[in-house]
Amino acid sequence: MIDKINEYIDSFIEYPSEILGILEKAHQERINVQPNITKQGARLLYCLILFKKAKSVLEIGTCLGYSAIWAGEALRKTGGRLTTIEIDERFVKENVENIKQAKLDHIIEVVNGDAKDYLEKDSTRYDLIIIDSNKPLYNKIIDRCIDLLNPKGIIFSDDTLFLPMGYKERLAKPMDEYNKYVMQHPKLETVILPVGDGITISFVTQTMQ
Ligand SMILES: C[S@@+](CC[C@H](N)C(=O)[O-])C[C@H]1O[C@@H](n2cnc3c(N)ncnc32)[C@H](O)[C@@H]1O
């Protein structure tokens, strides 16, 4: 049943860039890369950037650049920019090339480094922050992300339903803790959506002091 629903929804989603189909296939076939955000999750991200008319977006966890290119295509329409951080140098070499091929290198800047260190030094204000890195990092950076958001900014986090989906404890537990934290946070309004492996969207209703 759920497969049929997903097939139906996916049939409406067109890639805004040709390279996205190639990257999706690479993620499925290669064993050395972590999964990309799903097509439905990517479409949700794309629409959120458009609805929000976002101008400044930050992504944590680029991998091959699949979600970055989706976000970049939306930012091409809003006139915005994306900074995306990837810790693994091998992926940076590839994603820079993929972003160039998508003709988004004037919109997307790739930073090679640890997102935690980057966030501590960063003072940019963002309209939207995408979190899709290693799972324990979510809880370590969430407060700093809230701090860096513009008023009414959005945090878009992927893979947040790992616990009910039966993933290993080391992956599932931090995701459960993350959901609990953002759900009860007094400065956030949060919704958890069963899109892909779970997407948690938090809207800042008040900025941190
Ligand atoms: C799930 S993949 C990202 C997929 C990508 N967002 C997409 O949908 O196309 C997670 C990525 O986060 C990177 N990563 C893990 N820890 C990180 C850190 N501390 N700082 C930056 N990137 C990190 C990993 O190397 C990996 O490439």
The kinds of small molecule bound in this structure are:
S-adenosylmethionine
* Total separate domains: 1
Which fold does the CATH topology refer to?
Answer: Rossmann fold
Span between termini: 47 Å
What is the string of SSEs from the N terminus onward? HHHEHEHEHEHEHEE
Assign the CATH superfamily: Vaccinia Virus protein VP39
Helix/strand class: alpha/beta
- CATH C-level class: Alpha Beta
Biggest sheet strand order reads 3-2-1-4-5-7-6
Tally of alpha and pi helices: 8
Describe the protein.
By secondary structure, this protein is α/β, with parallel strands linked by helices. It has one domain: Vaccinia Virus protein VP39 (Rossmann fold). It has eight helices and seven strands, in the order H-H-H-E-H-E-H-E-H-E-H-E-H-E-E. The protein has a seven-stranded mixed beta sheet, with helices on both faces. Helix 4 links the parallel strand 1 and strand 2. Helix 3 (39-52) runs parallel beside helix 4. The longest helix has 16 residues, at 169-184. The radius of gyration is 16 Å and the shape is globular. Residues 34-37, 60-61, 63, 66-67, 85-88, 91, 114-116, 132-134, 137 line the site of S-adenosylmethionine. Residues 34-37, 60-61, 63, 66-67, 85-88, 91, 114-116, 132-134, 137 line the site of S-adenosylmethionine (SAM).
